[in-house]
């Protein structure tokens, strides 16, 4: 085995790890300016490049937020999200908490295109209701 192989594998690993979070905030940093805690944050921009994700308009959810109907400008708009530590975000594909559902635990999800919603769909631009606990 060439001495370059281990170095190449290490370089590939180092490149792959930072991209997993992209430009998204660290879940522990989800706070408002006044220091109050935020349970989750939805973003309307995503991109094939992870460094361009978690940008654009934001919708912050406080702990205990229960929105069976998202505001009209946010229904089917979220394409990136971050869930704070010790929180869990449940989403539905249809208003009124109907349709497909998924739970997102604490972490950064820069590209919702990577999370399947059934056989043919994904969660990008498909969230119509949320509950954050």
TrEMBL record:
It comes from the Eukaryota. Residues 1-22 form the signal peptide. Keywords: Cytoplasmic vesicle, Disulfide bond, Exocytosis, Membrane, Signal. It is a peripheral membrane protein. It is found in: Zymogen granule lumen; Zymogen granule membrane. The lineage of its organism: Eukaryota, Metazoa, Chordata, Craniata, Vertebrata. InterPro entries: Syncollin. This is Syncollin. GO terms for biological process: exocytosis. Its main location: other. It holds the Pfam family Syncollin. One of its GO terms (cellular component) is zymogen granule membrane. Functions in exocytosis in pancreatic acinar cells regulating the fusion of zymogen granules with each other. May have a pore-forming activity on membranes and regulate exocytosis in other exocrine tissues.
């Amino acid at each position: 085995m060439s001495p370059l192989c281990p170095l190449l594998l290490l370089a590939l690993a180092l490149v792959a790890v930072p991209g997993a979070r992209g430009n998204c905030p660290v879940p522990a940093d989800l706070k408002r300016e006044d220091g109050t805690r935020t349970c989750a944050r939805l973003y309307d921009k995503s991109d094939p490049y992870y460094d361009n994700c978690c940008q654009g308009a934001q919708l912050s959810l406080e702990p205990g937020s229960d929105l069976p109907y998202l505001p009209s400008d946010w229904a089917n708009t979220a394409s990136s999200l971050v869930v704070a530590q010790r929180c869990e975000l449940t989403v539905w594909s249809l208003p009124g908490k109907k349709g497909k559902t998924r739970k997102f635990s604490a972490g950064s999800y820069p590209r919702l295109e990577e999370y399947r919603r059934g056989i043919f769909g994904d969660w990008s631009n498909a969230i119509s209701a949320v509950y954050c606990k």
